[in-house]
Structure formats: C-alpha cells, structure tokens
Design brief:
The complex is a heterodimer of chains A (86) and B (238).
Chain A (H helix, E strand, L loop, with lengths): L1 H15 L1 H28 L8 H32 L1
Helix pairs in contact in A: 2-3
Chain B lengths: L2 H30 L4 H11 L13 H27 L20 H15 L2 H24 L2 H19 L5 H20 L7 H22 L15
Classes of the chains: A mainly alpha (86), B mainly alpha (238).
Chain lengths: 86, 238
C-alpha cells in the first residue's frame, strides 16, 4: 500500500517535469526532419538528375550538423550533472 | 491448497513485488535526472529549424487549411498558457529554463512562436527560411561566443554566420542580389539580436527585422520592375 503511494507520488513529480518529456523530442525531431530532407533530395533530386532539390540537401545538412553541435554538449551536460551527484 | 498451487502463487506475488520495486526505482532514477538549463535553451533554439518541414507539406486544398489552422492553434495555445502563467494560475516553477526577467512578462518561446507564425503565413519562404535559420542557429552561436569572446566579436561571428545563411538560401539569385540580401539580412538579424527591449524579445526581432528589411527591398525593386526573389528552396511533396 505504502509502496503504491510512493510510486504515485513519483509519477506525479515526473509528470510535472516537462523538460524531461521535451528532451527526447528536442533531439530526435530535428534529426528525423534533416534525414527526411536529405532522403527527399536523394529520391526527387539526385536519382532523377534534377538540381531543383539541392536546397533540401543544403537545409538537411545544416539541420543535421547544427543540431548535433548542440545536442552533444546538451547530453554531455546531463551526464556531468549526474556524475556530480554521485 | 496443493504444494504446487502455493508455489505458483508465491512466485507470482514475488514477481509482482519485484516488478513494482523495479518500476519505482526506475521512476526515481528518471526523476533524479538534472538538466543544464543553458544547453536546454540552446537545444530549443536549434530544434526550431525543424519547422522548415512546413514547406514540404503538399499544396492540396485541405492541407492548405491545415497549414494555416495548426500554426495558429499552436500559438493560441501558447498564448493561453502564458496568460495563465502570468496570472499565477500556472506555477512559474513548472517552466524549466525560464530566465528571471521572464517571470513578469511573456516568455521568449511565445515571441519565438509568434514571429515564426508571421514568417510561415505572411512571408515567402525565400525570406522566411534564412530568418528562421538565424533565430535557430545564429542566436545560440552569439550567446555561446559571448562566453568566450568579447561582445563585439560575438556579434561579428553572428553577422558572418547570418550572411552565410542568407547567401546559401539565395544561391539561385544573381551575385549582386546575394551580396545585397546577405548584408542587409545579416545586419537586421544582428541588430534584432542585440536590441534589448522591455516587452519585445530578441527572439522575435531576430526573425522579424531581417524579414521586414528584405520585404521592403524586394517590393522596392519590384517598383523598378526588377524581381530579385529567387525560385523557392523547398518544393512541396506531391
């Protein structure tokens, strides 16, 4: 009974921590979108020999590397804070 | 009760208890995760570039309605949340990474959202895309550079980065247009970022100022019967 109450309390606390729910989205969505841009450039542009989709490759690469440049220190900062705690 | 029945029941209870303990431990561990608000804010900025996906959405009539309705609904929801936060019915502590000065005025994510909405709905993508890229990447780059370099150098780096974004997204235009647009756009982005007003956030200005400057330039050249705008960078899916 007491165990159940503790779990409920922890779940409630977790629900309040919006940033925990946002973090995976912040990392995954840009990666998916950038890969989609690159994939679309490949299927509609590169494989048909058309250069009108080159802009999508450009944006895809920009999104991919721009986000990786921030995601890596972001994940590292979580690890560093965790290490400091233990 | 037979011996085998009792052992099965015991095993079931034991497993249930172990699973419960494991679940609680996992939840507690998740709760213990701490994030650096600084990098969280940076990741939020770069994440915003994903909204460029909007331009890939097909041009069918019902999708056109969705393309207008959803961004407006999202921003209206953000306005509602901010209204309740400022009224005090939603606790300020629930918002991770908010700055101290955002306690008594709308938070920067709302300004970012409103500017993004204006750009997506009111401006051609050739103008909107570099402005969104500036807000997504130049803003955090200037912020990060300020930690290691002087303010002026940080803005210079931001200016050069913005010039690259404008030049890359207008690469299909004539060379003199690329030079003019990248210079004016980058200047607008850096002035927007550097301007600190009480009720208008830099996340709004970094997007809107270059967009308005280029819009004026484009319309001005149109009066002289010169269309400077290049073909779109992203073509919608069919």
């Amino acid at each position: 009974m007491k165990n159940n109450e503790t779990r409920k309390e922890t779940i409630q606390k977790l629900l309040l921590r919006l940033e925990l729910w946002f973090a995976p989205l912040l990392i995954l969505i840009p990666l998916v979108v950038s890969l989609f841009f690159i994939g679309d450039w490949y299927s509609r542009g590169f494989s048909t020999g058309s250069s009108v989709h080159d802009g999508e490759l450009l944006l895809g690469m920009l999104l991919l590397f721009g986000n990786l440049a921030v995601d890596i220190p972001f994940l590292r900062s979580i690890r560093i804070i965790k290490k400091r705690e233990y | 009760m037979s011996f085998s029945e009792r052992t099965t029941k015991d095993a079931w209870n034991h497993t249930k208890q172990k699973m419960g303990e494991y679940q609680t431990e996992l939840l507690e561990r998740l709760n213990a995760i701490e994030m650096d608000a600084h990098w969280f804010r940076r990741a939020f900025h770069t994440f915003a570039a994903s909204f460029l996906f909007y331009y890939l959405l097909p041009d069918q009539s019902w999708i056109q309605i969705v393309k207008i309705a959803i961004p407006i609904a999202v921003v209206a929801f953000m306005v509602l949340i901010e209204y309740h936060r400022l009224q005090g019915s939603i606790d300020h502590q629930r918002f991770f990474g908010l700055r101290a000065y955002e306690k008594r005025r709308p938070a920067s994510y709302l300004y970012f959202g409103i500017a993004l909405l204006f750009l997506l709905l009111l401006f051609p993508q050739q103008i909107a895309i570099p402005c969104i890229l500036c807000a997504s990447f130049t803003d955090p780059l200037i912020g990060e550079s300020r930690y290691y370099l002087r303010k002026k150098k940080a803005y210079l780096i931001g200016f050069l980065m913005s010039m690259i974004f404008f030049a890359l997204t207008w690469y299909q235009a004539d060379w003199w247009i690329i030079i003019m647009i990248s210079f004016v756009g980058a200047a607008g982005a850096v002035v927007g970022e550097a301007t600190k007003l009480r009720f208008i956030d830099d996340d709004f200005l970094i997007q809107m100022l270059p967009a308005l400057l280029i819009l004026v330039l484009w319309q001005g050249w149109l009066l002289l019967r010169v269309d400077i705008i290049p073909p779109p960078l992203i073509l919608p899916l069919s």
